Amino acid sequence: MPEHPSTVLSLSGHRAVIEPDRFVPGAYQLVVDGTPQSHVNMDDPGELFFEYVQRMGHVIDLVGDPGQPITALHLGAGALTIPRYVEATRPGSRQQVIELEQDLVDLVREHLPWSRKASIRLRYGDAREVMGRLPHGLRGSVDLVVVDVFSGARTPAHITSRDFYAEAAAFLAPGGIMTVNVADGHGLRFARGRPRRSRTSSPTWPRSPRRRC
Q1: CB 209 within 8 A of CB 177
Q2: CATH for 53-201, among 3.40.50.150, 1.10.10.410, 3.40.50.300, 3.40.47.10?
Q3: How far is CA 143 from CA 33, 62, 173, in A?
Q4: How do the domains of the chain map onto residue ranges?
Q5: What's the 3-state SS for 148-197?
Q6: pLDDT at residue 193 greater than cutoff 80
Q7: Rg (Cα) of the chain, in Å, rounded?
Q8: Where in this protein does the record put region Disordered (predicted)?
Q9: pLDDT 10s digits, 100-126
């Protein structure tokens, strides 16, 4: 039986593996150091598998007019599940994706390539540092910011601060939405602190949309 495509990430030392979904033909899972990170249906990128990603998808569906292109900024790439979803449901969207581990993107690009028609720009480096180098014209013009940054199963501490959310919120257009993936334990103490950080980071933080989850 052939070995699954894999690589050892040069910066973190984590091992990334692409595994086929045994139950969904044409679908694959990205696993990093034993932790499932992303699920992609190559035959239908508009289908979301993990529950938290489905919830993000519900919120993204409420951005602007249904089916119309948007401008999106993704902090963390994984297997580009959400950028693929945005392109599938809102063709022509302009998307920027920031990822620390270029080795990870190279693995995904080779074995789970996304549509060449998609306007997806990859940038490499620490999410917070790269945000500071993004084109000035993006500030105040982004419809969707997705924060989904992990190192293995953990969220790096320096991207959980109030200042980090202030910097990310500065890219949002009026009415724009930020979605955040949070890994937490019993009681959700860490997650409950995130909304407080984000609300205090920007006096113009938009109201949360009605949830359809």
Answers
A1: yes
A2: 3.40.50.150
A3: 33, 11, 6
A4: 53-201
A5: CCCECCECCHHHCCHHHHHHHHCCEEEEEEEEECCCCCHHHHHHHHHHHH
A6: no
A7: 17
A8: 191-213
A9: 999 999 999 999 999 999 999 999 999
Alpha carbons 176 and 11: distance in angstroms, whole number? 33
Write the burial class of residue 18 (CB in 10 Å: 0-12 exposed, 13-18 middle, 19+ buried).
buried
- Provide the token pair at 1: 């039986």
Q: Give the pLDDT confidence score for residue 62 in this predicted structure.
A: 95
200, two tokens: 């205090």
For residue 2, the model assigns a pLDDT of 57
